[in-house]
Amino acid sequence: MLFKHNRGKGDSIYAQISINENNITNFPNPFNPTTEVSYQLKESGHVTIKVYDVLGKEVANLVDEVKPSGKYNVTFNGAELSSGIYFISMRVNNFYKTQKIILAK
């Protein structure tokens, strides 16, 4: 996946997201009621991982702390939520990624 970031001075930075860079995945997807969220950091930083419903309301805060580089896992349990589409969002330093996840009960 190729991301473009405009630095505001007329020049842009392109970043290729790969296994060696900040990345987030979940399995299984669709899930019922839990899914394992895996992420890898290429450098240390403050990590926030949140889950939002389709209206943009935060329904879960999975991670909100400084982490060193490495691979991590966290479990999201949607047992108290209704079936539907949700968005998992990860922010690390200046990196930001959102991914659609589906809760199917």
List keywords for this structure.
single chain, 105 residues, mainly beta, Immunoglobulin-like, 3-stranded antiparallel β-sheet
The second-level CATH architecture is Sandwich
| Helix and strand composition category | mainly beta
Order of helices and strands: EEEEEEEEE
Into how many domains do the coordinates divide? 1
Helix content: under 10%
Counted beta strands: 9
- DSSP strand (E) fraction? over 45%
Shape: globular
Distance between the termini: 30 Å
Rounded average pLDDT: 79
- Low confidence ranges: 1-21
Please identify the top-level CATH class.
Answer: Mainly Beta
CATH topology: Immunoglobulin-like
Main beta sheet:
4 strands, antiparallel
Radius of gyration: 15 Å
CATH superfamily: Macroglobulin (MG2) domain
**Total helical segments:** 0
* Strand numbers in spatial order across the main sheet: 6-5-8-9
Structure description:
- The chain is mainly β.
- It has one domain: Macroglobulin (MG2) domain (Immunoglobulin-like, Sandwich).
- 0% of the residues lie in helices and 65% in strands.
- It has no helices and 9 strands.
- The strands form 3 sheets. The chain has a 4-stranded antiparallel sheet, with no helix packed on it. A 3-stranded antiparallel sheet has the order 3-4-7, with no helix packed on it.
- The radius of gyration is 15 Å and the shape is globular.
- The N terminus is likely disordered.
